[in-house]
UniProtKB/TrEMBL annotation:
This is RNA methyltransferase, TrmH family. Keywords: Methyltransferase, Transferase. The keyword Transmembrane helix does not apply. Signal peptide: none annotated. GO terms for biological process: methylation; RNA processing. Residues 135-281 form the tRNA/rRNA methyltransferase SpoU type domain. One of its GO terms (molecular function) is RNA binding. It comes from Roseburia inulinivorans DSM 16841. Pfam families: SpoU_methylase. InterPro entries: Alpha/beta_knot_MTases, Ribosomal_eL30-like_sf, rRNA_Methyltransferase, SpoU_MeTrfase, tRNA_m1G_MTases_N.
Length: 286
């Protein structure tokens, strides 16, 4: 068998598809579909998300996410993409030169590799909270960068799970995944709201039913110090963080067991929600 036929046979076995442009219909998930279209791709079944960079893709695979296809630079196929391709088995692997791939918006941030994956089914809040001691609850945090940063802090600083209200930015948006460095696949999470549970009243009731004391992170003077011994003595805490700017809703704060304000200096009145989450998680995750 001559070398051309050998090369073709290997590529077929590995499902390698070399491309010179991005017009293939199969590449639309990478090139032209927005986040909402990816989310609803298989509706009513869960849709698709895009993982960027080798490290993020590996973390997604390690937690059981099912890949659909890979898109990478040709030079990565036999080098840093080799182990990822082996874990993905028989899916298509699209390869192209860098000049072609740079036509995809934001591709440089992907560090040479993209993977389309099936969205996992959402677990119940009960399953996510089972055996958890410290959880974060995000109320209407709409910025995907902040959501990703909060997940990264949650993973690093001993949070056992994250719950989100339905108005939050999706943790599986490309930017949120990228900022989280793939920790959205490591920290158990789900939405606290559903057809039977509203927020805040129903969600608060659910958290109390699961045995959590609720902590509102808010700018109020009638608050408990973040290092208060009573807080650290609580067996289970749910740390509730609000949207950028407006913070937590008044109704949410009224329903919480504790309100905590992070002490500030130099006339600074507040921290960004992602920064505030890191301070709170470090303190309560001790």
């Amino acid at each position: 068998m001559d070398m051309i036929h050998v090369k073709t046979a290997i590529h077929k076995k590995m499902n390698k598809i070399e491309i010179t442009d991005l017009t293939l219909a199969e590449l639309q998930v990478y090139t032209s579909l927005n986040e909402a279209q990816l989310l609803h791709y298989y509706e009513p079944a869960p849709g698709i998300f895009i993982a960027e960079s080798p490290k993020v893709i590996e973390r997604a695979l390690e937690t059981g996410c099912e890949p659909i296809s890979l898109l990478m630079e040709q030079k990565d196929f036999d080098t840093r993409g080799k182990n990822i391709i082996a874990k993905c088995k028989s899916i298509p692997v699209y390869t192209a030169k860098l000049g072609v791939l740079e036509q995809i918006t934001g591709y440089k941030l992907a560090r040479g590799m993209l993977c389309a994956m099936h969205r996992p089914a959402m677990p119940s809040a009960e399953k996510v909270c089972k055996n958890a001691r410290r959880i974060a609850v995000l109320e209407n945090v709409v910025n995907p960068t902040n959501v990703g940063a909060i997940f990264r802090s949650a993973a690093a600083l001993n949070m056992d799970a994250v719950l989100l209200t339905s108005a939050c930015s999706d943790p599986l948006y490309r930017r949120a995944i990228r900022v989280s460095m793939g920790t959205v696949f490591q920290v158990p999470w789900t939405y606290i709201e559903n057809k039977n549970v509203s927020w805040p009243q129903g969600g608060m009731d659910l958290l109390h039913e699961y045995g959590f004391k609720t902590v509102a992170m808010a700018l109020r003077n009638d608050s408990v110090r973040i290092d208060d011994e009573k807080l650290h003595a609580e067996e289970k805490l749910a740390i509730i963080l609000g949207t950028e700017g407006d913070g937590l809703a008044a109704e949410t704060m009224a329903d919480c067991d504790y309100t905590v304000k992070i002490p500030m200096s130099h006339g600074v009145d507040s921290l960004n929600v992602a920064a505030a989450s890191a301070v709170a998680f470090w303190e309560f995750g001790k």
